Amino acid sequence: MKKQLTLSVISILFSFYGFSQDLTFGKFLGSINTTKFVGSSVYRGYEKQVEVIEATTTGQKQTTSLEIKFNPCAASVDFLTHTQLGKNIMQGQIDVLEKNPYNQAFNRIKYKIYFEDAGIVSCNDTRACNGSTATTVILKPQRICWIYYTYDANGKQLSVNSNGIDIRSGRAWAITPPNF
Questions:
Q1: Containing domain of residue 146, as a range?
Q2: pTM summary value
Q3: pLDDT by residue for the chain (180 residues), tens digit each?
Q4: For the chain, which terminus, N or C, has the lower number of CB atoms within 10 Å?
Q5: In whole angstroms, what is the distance from residue 98 CA to residue 102 CA?
């Protein structure tokens, strides 16, 4: 009986995991110390990165802002320190993962947001969409690029498309993000 109950609980947990939302992780390279912005993620391949609850971008007159919300962690203090000192984030990348529809045991990259030389407009503790306390950071990058991944019917990656803008020059800017 105990064994059946354990198997039932495990199967329910796996079924919920299969219906979970996209996973989003951010990594940031700051101008004060390259070892800063440590998150609490333990997800394989994204260890110690910032696990993002919500990421939104908005465009307004010759500027783009990026708002990220994440559970408070060591990176919260690093963002606040950068805000207080007026230091920019030199490079940042947000990876959005989705369930692979052809193999639910694995995730694949849905899209990435890569940016450079981002000023921090604000860093506050707020409520996230899930009702928990979150650190909310609003960034104004000088360059920002969205990288989209497409897959064939079998789940094999076909192509990577990117588009973005260099705010200073007002020109299109597309890049393959460096590994950092």
A1: 22-172
A2: 0.81
A3: 444 433 333 333 333 333 457 899 999 998 766 678 999 999 999 999 999 999 998 887 678 899 999 999 999 999 999 999 999 999 999 999 999 888 888 899 999 999 999 999 999 987 766 677 899 999 999 999 999 999 988 888 898 899 999 998 989 988 877 666
A4: N
A5: 12
| Tally of residues, the chain | 180
Query: Tokens at residue 145, please?
Result: 């690029």
Residue that is written with structure tokens 């796996």 in the block:
14
Total domains, the chain: 1
Distance in Å from the first CA to the final CA of the chain: 50
For the domain that residue 63 is a member of, what is the CATH number?
2.30.110.20
Q: Which residues are CB-neighbours of 146 under 8 A, at least 6 positions away?
A: 57, 111, 112, 113, 162, 163, 164
Token pair listed for 6: 């354990």
For 29, the token pair is: 């390279």
